[in-house]
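Q: Predict the assembly, please.
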Amino acid sequence: MNPTCTALGLDVGAATTKIVAVDPEGSITWHHLEPTEVKIEEQVARVLAQARAAIGPLGGLPLVATGYGRRLVRQATRRVTEITCHARGIFRELGHGGTLVDIGGQDSKVIAIGPRGEVLDFVMNDKCAAGTGRFLENAARRLGVPLERMGTEALAATDEVSISSTCTVFAESEVVSLIAHGVDLGPILRGLHRALVRRIVAMVRTVGLTPPLMLSGGVVRNLAIRQMLEEETGERVVLPRHPQLMGAYGAALLALEDRGRPNG
Amino acid sequence: MNPIASLRYHWNVNLLGRAILRWQRIRAQRRPPRWDTRYLAPPLKVGARMKELVGRHWLAGRYTKGCRKVAWVTSGAPVELLKALDFYVLYPENHAAICGTARVAVEIASEAESAGYSRDLCSYARTDIGAVLSGKTPVGRLPRPDLLLACTNICQTVLYWYRVLAHHFRVPLVLIDTPFVYTEEAAEHAVRYVRRQLEEAVPLLEKAAGKRLNERRLRQAALLSKRASELWLEILQRCRHRPAPISVFDQFVQMAPIVEMRGEPATVDFYATMLREVDERIAGGMGAVRNERKRVLWDNLPIWYRLRYLAEFLARRGVAVVASTYTNAWGELAPLIDPDEPFESMARTYIYPILNRGTGHKLATMKRMVEEYQLNGAILHSDRSCKPYSIGQMDQRDRLIREVGIPALLLEADHNDSRAFAEEQVATRLTAFVEMLGE
Ligand code: SF4
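A: Predicted assembly structure:
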């Protein structure tokens, strides 16, 4: 039998595209994640076809789109920013407010969430890729370390060099020159993670840290980021079950609320 | 004075120019509006008149050679003295803003950059220096100055910028140094110091003008300046109405005369007409934003090259920007001008601009506006160019959130340099901000 689906959330992020289906109670019944492609409209059509194959006809189901590509989702019944969607998703998942750090592929955000799940304040990284997943991805490529192993290798090192540049491109040349000077890979990896985390912590300070500190986004799988975030803030990090789906999940929950509305 | 030049000036500006500009205004009034009227009120009728007025001003600039002395001044300079001495007054900052709205600022600023001026310099300064070096301008031609007058009450950038101009044009630079006001009231000795500089400037200005300063004319210029500023302030305060009859974007568009034509009778007439139109809107219940759901504040300079985009973006979501510290700056000092005590009151007026006061004063101004205009949120444009305006915004934002309890957004851009504006990022932040304002 197909999983029940009452509403859908689609998060077209800069790095990955996620879709979540929820039942009338708002529990996730189906989800799918894949890298975002250049031709977003075609990709969306395909992802929706996949959803149809998994859960049956989508006609009449409310669909909220979020993420950078949200405006390209013609099938959406409503579009909401990733800020509101993340807050909604994580609040439902964890049952409390606090400070959410979401490190995405191309942008990072810190959201202060109130006791009723409302957005109290937010900051996003400024107009560059510093402080985002892209920062590590670039370095991984340059150093020839698989992205999945970056974190563990960083944690295995005992020494740490400081990477002064937070600019993704300049950090890359800094790394190259460190290698040229014979510095080991481990300390460089540690230094890169530290640079990224410090950048994030500066954003956390702008919003103000109200515990608990929650973390979402693809970077969650990187253990070093989690550990360093705890070191730098002195707070334990709480994770949702599906860290990468929070935006799409929040979108689906909003879609669920739209049922019965004139445009939903 | 050269009689042929005078004749040419009179013919081109007062006769032919006036007629052509009037004809253009009438045509403009018939043209369909450019801003999306599904979400915004139709444009102010007075807008075409403003274009005519400003057009005449720049047209006059083209024919000053040989018949009128020209002064280039900063936006916070004591223009009354110059008006009383019959100078044609040009504001490079205004000219730069025109380049910004015409979307040619980056091209012109690049001329300055390739001459070695850093991109960290204010984009107004770069636009102006670029225009001077290349001759590029959307207003036809900029008249060469006979005199430069800079007042440091807005920033220290102007100090160096005007030295560059003085060096380039080889003309005298008169500098009015206005000590920063850290406390509620400026110290008496600071006011005296400014007053003395104004008095000492007079012989220099007279020499450049080739005539003596007439007390009666100075008083008259001060009176006209005061009257126009008072009308401007009244117009802004009409936005306390719900729905607000005009938006801050309308104010940005209509503010050119109060900045560059203060002290002229036509400016007073213009704002009197505008006030009447604004009152008509109030009487008819017309709001600048058709479906005004939320009211917010704007801090810092406009983003000149994206006025329409921002106005439509917010209006579509029912958000009206109804108050701004920036447009307020040209009205709030009006009560200080006293035509009977021109020097003393000019010293006071020109020491108190918002940028010459502490960041706490700006915060207090914003808090007062939130109350008086019943605002639901604040957008603080973090202007890469204008350091004095942007410093302190992090704390101001924080305190508006904590102490006033409204959402506040820091929006990174630049008033004239569109290379510092990332549309996708701006759209996401603004949309999230609007979502925070709620239903
Ligand atoms: S730095 Fe600011 S105050 Fe100074 S000229 Fe530029 S915009 Fe104006």
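Chain B has 19 helices and eight strands. The pocket of iron/sulfur cluster is lined by residues B 93, 122, 124, 154-155, 157-158, 301, 355, 385-386, 388-389 (CB under 6 Å).
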